[in-house]
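Input record (one chain):
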Amino acid sequence: MISIREVSKKYSVGPGPNGADEGEIAFAVEDLSLEVAAGETVVLLGASGCGKTTTLKMINRLVTPSAGEIVVEGRNTRDVDPVELRRGIGYVFQGIGLFPHWSVAENVAATPRLLGWDEDRIRARVNELLDRVGLDAAGYRDRRPSELSGGQQQRVGVARALAAESKLLLMDEPFGAVDPVTRDGLQRELIAMREQLDLTILLVTHDVTEALLLADRIAVMDRGRILQIDQPSQLFSDPASELVERLLDMPRRQSARVQDLIHGTVAEKTSGNVGGDE
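The corresponding structure, as predicted from the sequence alone:
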């Protein structure tokens, strides 16, 4: 579905000597290669500034690569009109990015309308997707984003990304702005939709637990490069570097701490009850 081949993105970070246009060069992404199979969910995992979002944006040409090539569904993205390319790829923005002056239905319908769908088809698709993401169409389609909670806005963002019936979904920190309970529900719904709609998903996150829960494979990134890509279980059992090992050790330590707290609380309650009985 996606083939990224030796792709780099470089920026000039200052004027060159004697006023030259190009000074020192910094790489946001450097010599990165990645294959994503149809129906697969791959997570780009790493700290802020490691090149995750730049990689995502290069796929639909929101950012133009400095070198290398990207092929999506067999087409080199350099040979496709960028507007046409974007209309065929679902994109869930960091921070949601709904149009505040449009209704929920208008937000979801944006791409199908640009593609020239007839109004009956658009209405049916909007209603279907709102129901699919857990928002009753009759109750939500005419609301404005300001009338929705953060979690509801995120659901609308996912519906909008799926509206044009794309099988490829790019997601940039899609659940970072919602509370943990809502986040858990959205993650579960995403897993269900992936299976029902046969989606291919490339998702960016810095949350290790989220990556472990959602990914078929995780690509750990640092300084614009992929340090290791593999199934979560393989990353745990055979980390390729100290950074990967530290990153994946974090949820293990957190889980152990939670278990200690749970068992400690249980022990205290049991001890208290015994003492009271006596």
